[in-house]
Design a protein that fits this description.
Number of domains: 2
CATH class of the largest domain: Alpha Beta
Low-confidence stretches: 299-306
Largest sheet: 9 strands, mixed
Helix content: 25-40%
Strand content: 25-35%
Distance between the termini: 51 Å
């Protein structure tokens, strides 16, 4: 039944496999293009299977669940657009997509966006989280630029001067613990580009960079990067930037699940804030704000590291 398979290796050592039955294969090919995933024949440590409703009609659970593993699966619904089956002990998720929306110009991307929440859930359990922040690379080091929507993250990314800077994404970033105990960052797609701008862009989601600093963008009359003096304020700032990603999802879960997730999120963002230097970044429309970021980072590649 499986028609195509793609792999995504994450910085925490997990390997995710995205697989689809014939009815959902075109949808998965497009998701893989956007995320720049490569075909794979591996089983992976975690798996997400996609099926069109017509692939199994009234079968419950879907036919992608093997006959010897039928028990223990719990179904969930998401606004009638798709159904999800999760298992407490098996690291796999089965998602049934409504075939009416597989080629829909907007809903197909909403489904792709939603599918990645399974990775977000894993990240939260593993000590990380997605964060509402742009990700840039400077001499191999990852730098987050966090701000509320419409306050300048994308503009800042566009204004970065190129080498040694490289903008990797401008909306959301996945932060994970690596096996050495540090934090690494993966760029995530800007889904609004596909929803409202008919974009054909893609993002190197598998590319992870060591996270070196987080800059919180503020309105200012001068370009300046100032470190947070109060550790508690840094924690609350990182927590707030991550919470922006989670709030739409929490609208559809139980209060018990939300409370547990909030506790995990606060713990994880506290660890991130303690390990990664945080700065306030003032950026003017005409100035060279990135020079202030470079100063905070310790200058060019030959300078001191944080």
């Amino acid at each position: 039944m499986i028609d195509c398979r793609y792999a995504l290796e994450l910085a925490d050592g997990s390997e995710w496999v995205f697989a689809a039955t014939n009815g959902a294969s075109g949808w998965l090919h497009e998701l893989a293009r956007i995320m720049e995933l490569k075909p794979s024949v591996k089983e992976g440590s975690h798996r997400i299977y996609f099926s069109a409703e017509r692939d199994f009609k009234t079968s419950n659970p879907p036919v992608t669940i093997r006959g010897d593993q039928k028990n223990g699966w719990r179904p969930f619904r998401n606004a009638g657009v798709y159904r999800v089956w999760r298992h407490e002990t098996i690291p796999a998720v089965h998602m049934a997509l409504d075939e009416a929306f597989l080629a829909h110009p907007e809903i197909k991307y909403i489904n792709m966006w939603s599918a990645l929440r399974e990775i977000h859930r894993h990240a939260l359990d593993a000590g990380g989280t997605p964060i509402h922040a742009a990700l840039a690379k400077h001499h191999g080091r990852g730098v987050l630029i966090a701000a509320s929507g419409g306050t300048g993250k994308s503009t800042c990314c566009l204004r970065l001067p190129g080498v040694p800077w490289q903008a990797l994404c401008d909306d959301q970033t996945l932060v994970l613990k690596d096996p050495d105990g540090g934090f690494r960052a993966h760029p995530l797609p800007t889904w609004s580009d596909h929803l409202w701008r008919d974009s054909h862009k893609s993002w190197p989601v598998e590319q992870a960079v060591p996270l070196s600093a987080i800059f919180f963008l503020e309105q200012a009359s001068a370009d300046i990067a100032v470190p947070f003096n109060d550790p508690a304020e840094a924690v609350l700032s990182v927590f707030g930037a991550a919470k922006q990603v989670w709030e739409p999802y929490w609208e559809r879960v139980s209060s018990k699940e939300k409370k547990k997730a909030l506790s995990l999120l606060f713990h994880n963002t506290s660890e991130i804030a303690a390990a990664i230097p945080c700065f306030r970044l003032g950026a003017t429309l005409e100035g060279e704000f990135w020079k202030e970021m470079e100063r905070a980072l310790g200058g060019t590649a030959g300078g001191a590291h944080l």
